[in-house]
C-alpha cells in the first residue's frame, strides 16, 4: 500500500477550510455581556410586542439559575457568557424587493458559499432566507409562496406580523427551561426563520436558510419555527458557515418543528461552521436544540451532514405524540483534527403504531472524538411501536475515537426495537482493489467514505447531496502530494 | 444517623475483630475513607441511572451478625449441585460453616479469606492480589473496608482442578437487617484450569442485603469458568461486584443466571492485560413481580489481538425491570480487537420495563466491534405453530423462551449444572417440560 | 521461449518476492508477447497468486530482487494505480466488497481516473453508458446488477463475472486472471471464458492462473507454465495442461527434484 497512516495524517492536516473568509460589511453590534437590559434592548431593537419581551425575560431568569451541562463526551473551555456580544446585525438593515438591491459584497459572500441566490432562484426554485450574524437579510420567492398561503419570513417579522401563530407555538416543543442553551437562546435570540404551511398545502419548492456568523466576538442565537398544518408538506434546508477565527465562537440555536395531523416535514442540514485549525485553535461551539412534534399520522424526518464546528452538541429529536406518526433521523458526522462531536437523536414514542428509524454514520479522523448519543423511549401507551437504529463508525488513523451511547427504554410489551452498531476502518484490501483499477488512494478513500455514507446522502435533496458530498471530500481529503 | 454515617462509625468496632497490624488493614482504612467520601451511588450517576438503591438501604442495616446460626445439610442440600463431586466453601450469615464445607490444601488452596489473611504463607499472595483490580467506587470500598471473610481460591501453575468449586453464601434472616459483605479472591496460575459455581441464598422471607466483591486473576493460559446462580427469594437483594484481570492467552467466562431476588445489580468488569486472550460474558435473566435486575458490564481492551463476547438474554414479566448497561472500551494500543456484544430482550407485560444502554468507546482504528440490542416479543406465528401441534399455550410459550435463552445455556460446560439451571428456569416459568434441554 | 525485447508485452527477470521475511517467489523468469495467452498452473501454495499480486503492485509483498517490465518499461517502482494506468489488470481471486459504491460508479471513477492519468478527457456520459450496455451484454450481466454495491452480497459467480466485466470496460494491455474459474459453475464458466476470448486482440495479452485444467478447455493457452515452490519448473504448450490434469503434479515435483 502506497498510503501509510503517516501520510494520511499529513494529508488531513493540510486540509483547508474552504469557507474561511471574512466579508467586510459594517455591523451594528451590541456591547458584550448579558443582563436583563440587554435582553430588553434586543427585544426593543426588534420592535417586539410586550409579551415577547416578557417571554424572553422569563427565559433569562430561568437560564441564570441553570448550569452548563457536562454529560456530553466533549471537553472544551466553557465560554464566558459575559464576554459575548448578543446582537450583531448588518448596519444597513436591508429590506429588499429584489436581489439587485443587496450589497454586492454580501452577494459575493454568497457566491463563495456556493449559494448564489439568483442562480438558485432560476435553476432550483429554492426560496432562501439568509440569516447572517443573526439577522435575516433577504427572502426570495415570497410572492410565489404567498399565493399558496405559505408564510416564510424571518422570525422577527413573524413576531410582528403573525403574533398569534408565534405565540401559540413558540416554546411548545422546546420549552424555555428545556436546557441551558435553549434557555439562553430563548432570552437572546436575534433572528431566525419562520415558516407556516397552511392546511393541505404541499410547499412547491424547497425552503432554505443559510446561517452564517460573520462578526468577531459575537454569538449566534437563531430561532427557527416551522409549522406544518394538517395534511401539508414542506422540505426545509439549512446551511451553516462561519469564517476562520482564532477565538471560539458560540452558536446556540433552537429549532422547533410542529407537524400537525397528516403533515410531513423534512428538515435537512449541512453544517460547516469553522471547525478550528489543525492545532485545535478557534472554531465554533455548536450547542443546538432541535426537536419536532408529530401529531396523528404526521412524519418528521431529520437529515444532517455535520462536518464543521470545534464542538458539536446536537440531538435533533422527534416526539411521536400522535398515533401512527413517524420519526426519522439520518446523520453523517465527520470529525477531523481536534473536532469533537456528540450528536444523535431522541425518539420519544408516545402514540400507538409509531415508528422511528435512526441511521447514523460517524467518521473520525485526526485527533478527533466522534460520539453518537441516542435515546429510544417507548412509553406505556405506545402500542406496537417500532424502532430500527443503525450506528456505524469509520475510524481513520489511530489517534481518534468513535463512541456509541445508545439509551433504549421500553415500557410496552409490543415494542419492537432493533439496534445495531459497528465499527470499522477502511480496509487496505479495499484500497488496493481500487488502486488496481487505476483509482489513486485519495480518490479511493473518498469513494469508500461516500459509499459508507450513502444511505444518508440519499435522503438529502439533490443540490444539497452534491454539496454534502463535496464537503465530505474537503473534510477528509485535502491535498495529497 | 443515616446509614452511611452508621457504617462509617461501625468501622471502629470492626477493627476490634481483625488484625490491625496486617498490611490489608491499611487497605481497609483507605477504603473506609473512600466510602465516607463517595457514599452510596445515586440515580444521578450515569452508571446508576436506571437502578435505585433507596428501597434497600435501610438505616437499621448492620454489618455485625449477633449470633451464629448453624444449618443442617439436609435443609440446604437443594441449593447445592449435589449430583457432582465438588469442593464446597459455605458461609452462613457471612460466617464460615465448616461442617457444610469441603475445602482443600492439597496441591491447591480452596479455603477461606480469613485463613489467607491470617497465615503468613499467604501474605505474598494477598499483597500481590488483594484489592488490586477492584474498582474503588463507594460500594466496593464499603466491602473492602469490612472485608474479612469469603472464599479464597489459589490454583497453582499447571493444576487442572478436576472437580468444580461451589461457593454458597446463605443468609438465614434470623437477623433481618444484616448486611453481609463476602469478599472472594480467586488466583489462577499459568496453565491452570478451574470451574466455580457461586450462589447467594436467603432461607427466610426476611429482607437481606448482600454486597459481594470477587476478584479473579487469570494468569497466562489460565482457564476460568465462573457460574453465578441468582435465584434468591423475593426479599433478598444483591450487589455483586466481580472484577477480572486476565493475562496473555487466558480464557475467562462468566455466566450469570438471574432468576430470583428483589434487586440484583451485577457489576461485571473485565480488564485485559495481555495479548491473545478472550473474555466471555453471558447471562439469562427472567424476572416477574417487582423484581429489578441490572447487568452492568465492562470489557476493557487494553492490549492487541484480544476478543470479547457478550451475550445477554432477558425476559421480563409483571412489574419487573431489566437493565442492561454494557460497555466496551478499546484503547489505542488494542489493535486487532474483536469485541461483540448482544443483548436480546422480551417484555411479557406492559407493566414491565427494559432499559438498555450498550456502549462502545473506541480509540483504535483496526478493530472489529459491534453491538446489537433488540427488544421484542415472542413470535406469534411460532406460538401458533406449536399450539397447533397440541402443545398448550403456557408450555409453548415456555418452550419459545427456552429457545430464546438457549445460546447462553448451551455454553455451560458442566452437564449437571446445565440440567439444574434448566430446571430452575422451568420452575420460574411455571412449567414442567417433559425433556431435558 | 526466446522473445524479442522490442515486442515483449511483459518481461519478468529473476523475480524474488517475500512476505513478512518469508520468500515466496524464488527467481521467476517469464516473457509474454502481445496476442498470447499464457497459463500458469501449480499446486496450492506454489506462489501463483503471489505472482499476480506482485505484478499488480500489492505492497504486502516485498520484491527483493529482479525486474518486471511492461512494454520495455520497468514497473517495480510504480504504485498499483500507476500500473493500472499502464494497462495492467488483475482479476482478483477474492474480489473485495465496497459497501455503498455501485458497480457503475466504481467503473466510471476507474475509467476516468485512468483517462486522466493518460492525459485524456473524461469519457462523455453517453459514451460511457453505451460502453456499459455493450460490455454487460457481452457478459450476460443483468443491468440491475450494475446498480448494486460493489461485490456486496454477490455470489461467487457474480463476483467473477463482475471482474471480467470490469476488464472489458478497462481494456487492459495485460490481463491477469487469478483463479477466475474457482466458484463458477460450468455455465458461468462458459460465459466468462467467452467474454475473455472475445476481448482478445493481437495487441493484448492474458495470463490465466489456475489450479485446474478445466478453464483451459475454454480459454486455450499458447503457453503453459508450471509454478512450483516459487519457480517456474516446466513450460510447454497447451498439451502440458492436459498432461497435468491426467497425471497430477507429483511427477513434476519428482522431475524438479532431480
Automatic annotation (TrEMBL), chain A:
GO terms for biological process: iron-sulfur cluster assembly. This is Fe-S cluster assembly protein SufB. The gene is sufB. Residues 211-452 form the SUF system FeS cluster assembly SufBD core domain. Belongs to the iron-sulfur cluster assembly SufBD family. It comes from Robertkochia marina. InterPro entries: Fe-S_cluster_assembly_SufBD, SUF_FeS_clus_asmbl_SufB, SUF_FeS_clus_asmbl_SufBD_core, SUF_FeS_clus_asmbl_SufBD_sf, SufBD_N. Pfam families: SUFBD_core, SufBD_N. Residues 130-203 form the SUF system FeS cluster assembly SufBD N-terminal domain. The lineage of its organism: Bacteria, Pseudomonadati, Bacteroidota, Flavobacteriia, Flavobacteriales. It comes from the Bacteria.
TrEMBL record, chain B:
Residues 177-404 form the SUF system FeS cluster assembly SufBD core domain. Belongs to the iron-sulfur cluster assembly SufBD family. PANTHER family: PROTEIN ABCI7, CHLOROPLASTIC. NCBIfam families: sufD (TIGR01981). This is Fe-S cluster assembly protein SufD. Residues 21-167 form the SUF system FeS cluster assembly SufBD N-terminal domain. One of its GO terms (biological process) is iron-sulfur cluster assembly. It comes from Robertkochia marina. The lineage of its organism: Bacteria, Pseudomonadati, Bacteroidota, Flavobacteriia, Flavobacteriales.
Amino acid at each position: 500500500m502506497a498510503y501509510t497512516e503517516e501520510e494520511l495524517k499529513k494529508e488531513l492536516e493540510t486540509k483547508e477550510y474552504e469557507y474561511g473568509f471574512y466579508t467586510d460589511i459594517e455591523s451594528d453590534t451590541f456591547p458584550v455581556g448579558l443582563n436583563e437590559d440587554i435582553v430588553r434592548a434586543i427585544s426593543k431593537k426588534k420592535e417586539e410586542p410586550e409579551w415577547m419581551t416578557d417571554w424572553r425575560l422569563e427565559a433569562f431568569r430561568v437560564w441564570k439559575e441553570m448550569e452548563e451541562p457536562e454529560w456530553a463526551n466533549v471537553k472544551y473551555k466553557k465560554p464566558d457568557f459575559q464576554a459575548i456580544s448578543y446582537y450583531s446585525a448588518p448596519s444597513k438593515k436591508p429590506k429588499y424587493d429584489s436581489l439587485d438591491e443587496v450589497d454586492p459584497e454580501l452577494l459575493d459572500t454568497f457566491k463563495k458559499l456556493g449559494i448564489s441566490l439568483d442562480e438558485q432562484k432560476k435553476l432550483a426554485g429554492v426560496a432562501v432566507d439568509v440569516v447572517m450574524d443573526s439577522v435575516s437579510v433577504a427572502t426570495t420567492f415570497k410572492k410565489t409562496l404567498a399565493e399558496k398561503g405559505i408564510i416564510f419570513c424571518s422570525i422577527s417579522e413573524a413576531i410582528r406580523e403573525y403574533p398569534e401563530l408565534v405565540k401559540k407555538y413558540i416554546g411548545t416543543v422546546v420549552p424555555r427551561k428545556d436546557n441551558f442553551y435553549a434557555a439562553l437562546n430563548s432570552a437572546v435570540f436575534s433572528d431566525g426563520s419562520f415558516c407556516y404551511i397552511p392546511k393541505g398545502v404541499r410547499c412547491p419548492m424547497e425552503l432554505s436558510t443559510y446561517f452564517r456568523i460573520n462578526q468577531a466576538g459575537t454569538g449566534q442565537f437563531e430561532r427557527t419555527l416551522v409549522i406544518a398544518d394538517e395534511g401539508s408538506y414542506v422540505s426545509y434546508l439549512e446551511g451553516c458557515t462561519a469564517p476562520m477565527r482564532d477565538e471560539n465562537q458560540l452558536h446556540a440555536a433552537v429549532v422547533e418543528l410542529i407537524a400537525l395531523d397528516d403533515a410531513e416535514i423534512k428538515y435537512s442540514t449541512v453544517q460547516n461552521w469553522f471547525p478550528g485549525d489543525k492545532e485545535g485553535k478557534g472554531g465554533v461551539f455548536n450547542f443546538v436544540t432541535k426537536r419536532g412534534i408529530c401529531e396523528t399520522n404526521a412524519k418528521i424526518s431529520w437529515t444532517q451532514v455535520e462536518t464543521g464546528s470545534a464542538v458539536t452538541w446536537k440531538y435533533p429529536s422527534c416526539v411521536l405524540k400522535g398515533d401512527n406518526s413517524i420519526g426519522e433521523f439520518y446523520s453523517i458526522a465527520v470529525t477531523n483534527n481536534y473536532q469533537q462531536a456528540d450528536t444523535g437523536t431522541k425518539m420519544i414514542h408516545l402514540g400507538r403504531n409509531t415508528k422511528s428509524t435512526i441511521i447514523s454514520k460517524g467518521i473520525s479522523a485526526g485527533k478527533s472524538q466522534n460520539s453518537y448519543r441516542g435515546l429510544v423511549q417507548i412509553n406505556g401507551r405506545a402500542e406496537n411501536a417500532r424502532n430500527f437504529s443503525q450506528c456505524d463508525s469509520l475510524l481513520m488513523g489511530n489517534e481518534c475515537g468513535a463512541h456509541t451511547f445508545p439509551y433504549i427504554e421500553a415500557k410496552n410489551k409490543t415494542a419492537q426495537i432493533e439496534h445495531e452498531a459497528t465499527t470499522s476502518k477502511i480496509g487496505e484490501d479495499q484500497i488496493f482493489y481500487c488502486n488496481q483499477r487505476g483509482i489513486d488512494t485519495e480518490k479511493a478513500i473518498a469513494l469508500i467514505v461516500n459509499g459508507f455514507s450513502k444511505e444518508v446522502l440519499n435522503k438529502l435533496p439533490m443540490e444539497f447531496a452534491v454539496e454534502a458530498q463535496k464537503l465530505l471530500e474537503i473534510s477528509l481529503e485535502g491535498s495529497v502530494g | 444517623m443515616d446509614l452511611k454515617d452508621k457504617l462509617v462509625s461501625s468501622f471502629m468496632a470492626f477493627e476490634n475483630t481483625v488484625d490491625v497490624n496486617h498490611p490489608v488493614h491499611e487497605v481497609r482504612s483507605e477504603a473506609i475513607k473512600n466510602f465516607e467520601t463517595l457514599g452510596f451511588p445515586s440515580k444521578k450517576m450515569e452508571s446508576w441511572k436506571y437502578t435505585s438503591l433507596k428501597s434497600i438501604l435501610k438505616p437499621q442495616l448492620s454489618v455485625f451478625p449477633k449470633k451464629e446460626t448453624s444449618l443442617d445439610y439436609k435443609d440446604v442440600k437443594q441449593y447445592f449441585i449435589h449430583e457432582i463431586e465438588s469442593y464446597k466453601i459455605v458461609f452462613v450469615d457471612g460466617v464460615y460453616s465448616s461442617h457444610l464445607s469441603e475445602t482443600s490444601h492439597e496441591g491447591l488452596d480452596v479455603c477461606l479469606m480469613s485463613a489467607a489473611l491470617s497465615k503468613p504463607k499467604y501474605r505474598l499472595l494477598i499483597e500481590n492480589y488483594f484489592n488490586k483490580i477492584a474498582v474503588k467506587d463507594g460500594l466496593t470500598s464499603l466491602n473492602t473496608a469490612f472485608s474479612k471473610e469469603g472464599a479464597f481460591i489459589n490454583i497453582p501453575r499447571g493444576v487442572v482442578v478436576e472437580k468444580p468449586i461451589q461457593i454458597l453464601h446463605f443468609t438465614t434472616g434470623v437477623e433481618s437487617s444484616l448486611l453481609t459483605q463476602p469478599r472472594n479472591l480467586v488466583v489462577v496460575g499459568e496453565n491452570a484450569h478451574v470451574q466455580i459455581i457461586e450462589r447467594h441464598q436467603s432461607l427466610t422471607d426476611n429482607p437481606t442485603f448482600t454486597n459481594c466483591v470477587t476478584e479473579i486473576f487469570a494468569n497466562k493460559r489460565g482457564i476460568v469458568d465462573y457460574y453465578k446462580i441468582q435465584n434468591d427469594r423475593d426479599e433478598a437483594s444483591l450487589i455483586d461486584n466481580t472484577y477480572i484481570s486476565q493475562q496473555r492467552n487466558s480464557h475467562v467466562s462468566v455466566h450469570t443466571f438471574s432468576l430470583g431476588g428483589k434487586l440484583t445489580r451485577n457489576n461485571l468488569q473485565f480488564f485485559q492485560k495481555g495479548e491473545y486472550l478472550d473474555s466471555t460474558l453471558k447471562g439469562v435473566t427472567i424476572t416477574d413481580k417487582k423484581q429489578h435486575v441490572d447487568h452492568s458490564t465492562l470489557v476493557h481492551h487494553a492490549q492487541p489481538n484480544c476478543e470479547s463476547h457478550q451475550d445477554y438474554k432477558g425476559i421480563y414479566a409483571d412489574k419487573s425491570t431489566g437493565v442492561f448497561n454494557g460497555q466496551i472500551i478499546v484503547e489505542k494500543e488494542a489493535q486487532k480487537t474483536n469485541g461483540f456484544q448482544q443483548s436480546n430482550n422480551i417484555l411479557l407485560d406492559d407493566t414491565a420495563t427494559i432499559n438498555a444502554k450498550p456502549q462502545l468507546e473506541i480509540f483504535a482504528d483496526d478493530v472489529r466491534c459491534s453491538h446489537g440490542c433488540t427488544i421484542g416479543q415472542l413470535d406469534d406465528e411460532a406460538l401458533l405453530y406449536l399450539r397447533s401441534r397440541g402443545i398448550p399455550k403456557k408450555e409453548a410459550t415456555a418452550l419459545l423462551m427456552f429457545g430464546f435463552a438457549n445460546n447462553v445455556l448451551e455454553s455451560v460446560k458442566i452437564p449437571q449444572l446445565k440440567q439444574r439451571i434448566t430446571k430452575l428456569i422451568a420452575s420460574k416459568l411455571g412449567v414442567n417440560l417433559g425433556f431435558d434441554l | 521461449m526466446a522473445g524479442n525485447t522490442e515486442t515483449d508485452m511483459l518481461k519478468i527477470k529473476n523475480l524474488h518476492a517475500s512476505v513478512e521475511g518469508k520468500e515466496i517467489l524464488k527467481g521467476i523468469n517469464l516473457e509474454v508477447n502481445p496476442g498470447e495467452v499464457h497459463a500458469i498452473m501449480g499446486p496450492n501454495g506454489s506462489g501463483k497468486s503471489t505472482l499476480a499480486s506482485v505484478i499488480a503492485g500489492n505492497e504486502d509483498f516485498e520484491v527483493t530482487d529482479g525486474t518486471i517490465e511492461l512494454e520495455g518499461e520497468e514497473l517495480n517502482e510504480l504504485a498499483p494505480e500507476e500500473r493500472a494506468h499502464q494497462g495492467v489488470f488483475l482479476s482478483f481471486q477474492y474480489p473485495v466488497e465496497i459497501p455503498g459504491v455501485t458497480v457503475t460508479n466504481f467503473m466510471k471513477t476507474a475509467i476516468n481516473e485512468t483517462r486522466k492519468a493518460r492525459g485524456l478527457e473524461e469519457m462523455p456520459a453517453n459514451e460511457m453508458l453505451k460502453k456499459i450496455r455493450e460490455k454487460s451484454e457481452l457478459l450476460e450481466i443483468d443491468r440491475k446488477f450494475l446498480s448494486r454495491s460493489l461485490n456486496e452480497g454477490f455470489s461467487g459467480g457474480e463476483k467473477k463475472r463482475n471482474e471480467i466485466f470490469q476488464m472489458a470496460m478497462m481494456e487492459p494491455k495485460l490481463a491477469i486472471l487469478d483463479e477466475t474459474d474457482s466458484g463458477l459453475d460450468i455455465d458461468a464458466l462458459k460465459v466468462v471464458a467467452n467474454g475473455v476470448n472475445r476481448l482478445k486482440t493481437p495487441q493484448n495479452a492474458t495470463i490465466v492462473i489456475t489450479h485446474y485444467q478445466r478453464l483451459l478447455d475454454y480459454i486455450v493457452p499458447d503457453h503453459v507454465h508450471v509454478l512450483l515452490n516459487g519457480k517456474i519448473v516446466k513450460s510447454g504448450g497447451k498439451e502440458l495442461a492436459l498432461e497435468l490434469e491426467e497425471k497430477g503434479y507429483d511427477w513434476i515435483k519428482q522431475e524438479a527434484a532431480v
